[in-house]
């Protein structure tokens, strides 16, 4: 008697066989998620220390890399993080090119895939920054918003510059709202192999993801709002990046509490990235 295979199970097997990342890409991408998580976690830890008055500072991802190289065995650690960031960027480019999330070719799919590509460029630039730190060709003290001011000033100098900066601000706010949506719905769970996780692992992964995406949503919303302010007043100094957004939180009347909450969320996002490194679905179309 021939063994019967249910259609849903057969369909899943066909899908799994048709979508599988090459082993080297998968390993490199998982290592990239580890590096990504370390950077975000360090930004959160430094912000938490600043909120508690125990040292630390409100900085961005570049500033976090400066702290890595200043640590014991810092050059080795930073070299590993730089390699990991290239791996993370590679996975983002694969997601954009191969539609790993089955986003399709509609408007939402195109926007999602463009977002993956932009993320890849950003993290590749971050990896190059780490390399320049290792080579001693990058000046220290960049965990501020000077580069944000410079880029905003350049954009404002272009034709229709205020409109361009305003549009970028609206896009960043949109990214922030999507992050908050992810935190509310926990749709990020679809990107994890939850069947391979224990009940406790699923619970804590969801908690870390919700807190992490919520913190990112708040920060992106603030950054976008500052960009719109810079566009309205044609003043690049009003623009803020990650470091500036965290510093603005700290300056509020209830700043230590607000900064602490967001800092914990950023650390949680770092933890979630580590979960992705272990249980993320690294699948591509063939």
Question: Please, could you describe this protein's structure?
Answer:
The chain has 286 residues and is mostly helical. It has two domains: 21-144, no CATH class; 146-240, no CATH class. 74% of the residues lie in helices and 0% in strands. It has helices at 7-18, 23-52, 61-70, 74-98, 107-135, 146-156, 161-185, 199-233, 242-251, 255-279. The longest helix is centred in the last third of the chain and has 35 residues, at 199-233. The two termini are 34 Å apart.
CA gyration radius, whole angstroms:
20 Å
Number of helices: 10
Helix and strand content put the structural class at mainly alpha
Low-confidence stretches: 1-8, 10-18
**How much helicity do the residues have?**
over 70%
Whole-number count of domains = 2
* Total beta-strand segments: 0
Pattern of helices and strands: HHHHHHHHHH
* Average of the residue pLDDT scores: 86
């Amino acid at each position: 008697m021939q063994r019967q295979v249910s259609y849903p199970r057969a369909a899943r097997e066909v899908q799994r066989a048709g979508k599988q990342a090459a082993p080297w890409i998968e390993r490199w991408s998982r290592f990239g998620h580890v590096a990504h998580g370390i950077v975000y976690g360090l930004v959160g830890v430094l912000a938490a220390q600043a909120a508690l008055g125990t040292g630390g500072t409100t900085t961005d991802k570049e500033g976090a890399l400066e702290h890595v190289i200043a640590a014991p065995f810092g050059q080795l650690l930073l070299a590993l993080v730089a390699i990991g960031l290239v791996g993370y960027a590679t996975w983002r480019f694969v997601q954009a090119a191969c539609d790993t999330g089955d986003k399709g070719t509609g408007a939402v799919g195109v926007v999602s895939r463009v977002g993956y590509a932009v993320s890849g460029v950003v993290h590749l630039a971050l990896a190059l920054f780490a390399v320049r730190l290792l080579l001693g060709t990058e000046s220290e003290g960049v965990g501020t918003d000077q580069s944000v001011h410079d880029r905003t000033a350049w954009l404002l100098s272009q034709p229709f510059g205020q409109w361009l900066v305003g549009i970028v601000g609206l896009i960043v706010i949109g990214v922030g709202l999507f992050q908050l949506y992810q935190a509310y719905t926990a749709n990020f769970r679809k990107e994890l192999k939850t069947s391979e996780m224990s009940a406790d692992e699923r619970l804590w992964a969801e908690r870390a993801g919700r807190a992490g995406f919520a913190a990112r949503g708040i920060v992106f919303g603030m950054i976008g709002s500052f960009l719109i302010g810079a566009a309205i007043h044609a003043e690049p100094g009003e623009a803020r990046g990650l470091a500036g957004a965290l510093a603005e939180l700290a300056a509020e009347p209830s700043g230590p509490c607000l900064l602490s909450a967001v800092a914990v969320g950023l650390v949680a996002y770092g933890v979630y990235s580590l979960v992705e490194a272990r249980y993320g679905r690294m699948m591509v179309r063939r």
